[in-house]
Amino acid sequence: MPSEAELIAQRLEKRARLLEHVDPYPARVQRTHTAAAAAAAFAAAGEPDGEGADAIAVFVVGRVTAQRIMGRAAFFDLTDASGRIQLHFRRDVQGDAFELLSLTDLGDFLEVSGALFRTRTGELTVAAGQWRVIAKALRPLPEKWHGIVDVETRTRQRYLDLIANERAREIARKRVAIVGAVRRFFTDHDFMEVETPVLQEHAGGAAARPFVTHHNALDRDLFLRISLELHLKRLLVGGFEKVFEISRVFRNEGVDARHNPEFTLLESYEAYVDYEHVARMVEELLSFVAQEVNGTLQLAREDAETIELSAPFARTTYRGALREHAGFDYRDYPTVDALRALARERDLPVAEGASWATILDGFMSTFVEPRFVQPTFVFDYPTELSPLAKRKVDDDGAVERFELFINGYEIANAYSELNDPVDQRMRMDEQARKAAAGDEEVELIDEDFLIALEHGMPPAGGLGIGIDRLVQLLTGEHSLREVILFPALRERDRGTHGQVRSDPRA
User: Which of 22, 108, 130, 311 is the most buried (most CB within 10 A)?
Assistant: First the structure.
């Protein structure tokens, strides 16, 4: 079998021969129907004979995905975004142009005009008249045209995955539908969609390690945002009462099935409500989106358990969840050393220098979160884990925060937002002391935000939902790589895998 380099050389030769007759990369094409529209028009006209006065004439364009050239006739399959349609070429119709069909390959794009008819086998077909190559492909399509299974190829060369796998295209379309449904929900509830800066002086709003970049004109380092929160809260200070944003955020952290260093985040803030109100809104939001996109509130799992997204969702507390599923009360371990010792007993890995909050979060993610398959709200987090949330009136050691877990991982995070500027400054100062001691995952001080807060911010409920994880949930996928078109990947071993990287003209 020819090597890839040999196949590319053959295609370059065909390109050169095509250039002697036509331009195989024209700037403009003619199209009257997609494949699906042609089928619909043919059916609506009562499937007329392709040669009569009532024949349906079309111009179609797309990629060649099958070809059978036989002496005096040829059949090609042409695929566009709407589907596939068959082409029938005849030497007595195309004349000299028929010979040029031998210069086409799988993967080329064609423009073809002709009348629609149905073959004896029932296949809707274009009786080709004029045709031309509109993009000559120099590299062959994947051998397994009906589906790439190699994960490396599918994620590193997503365009090949989209060509070969209908499932990949389905996920991409469903993601668009999910984002659209989320946006409709908030606009229908009178929220205003806004945009806030990606480049920021301070990476605030979450406890995460940021990416750093340099602004040449300003001659200073800036951070890629890790959250949308602090600028959206500034808008509450400015007088807007219901705002939301769906945008990319960036966290310089690990890459795995549930984490990507850049991801799409929804955040919303509503004045004069608390986290209980936000929880009810989340129930309504997820039910709405699931019904809009999937047509059902039930999500099937491989183990035959069905996830039910109808309200109300189950509820517990952070303290109660740890007691039930991890077997301890975190308030019995108030120091880093005590919690670290417990982690050693439970064989829980702990990074050197990890803070009390980081270790506690490790217990939660390891022993508790995987238990929550059905939608479960976990309310009332320790203050140390939530420097931007309002303290509970009856429990100074906890804040009004919840996270929603479904299928074993976090879907939503929400607060009754802290609007006391004195308390906020004290908590950020404490975070700064932790950062000085070497903790990289803390909430940093944003002086401009504190000044804004000192001008007065109304009581508010805030919400954050990772869109990628929501798509993962509603599509039934197990990895974020499947729902992000171009995920971050580790550098591959170029000596053992990958496409030919050289210039095909060399």
Answer: 108
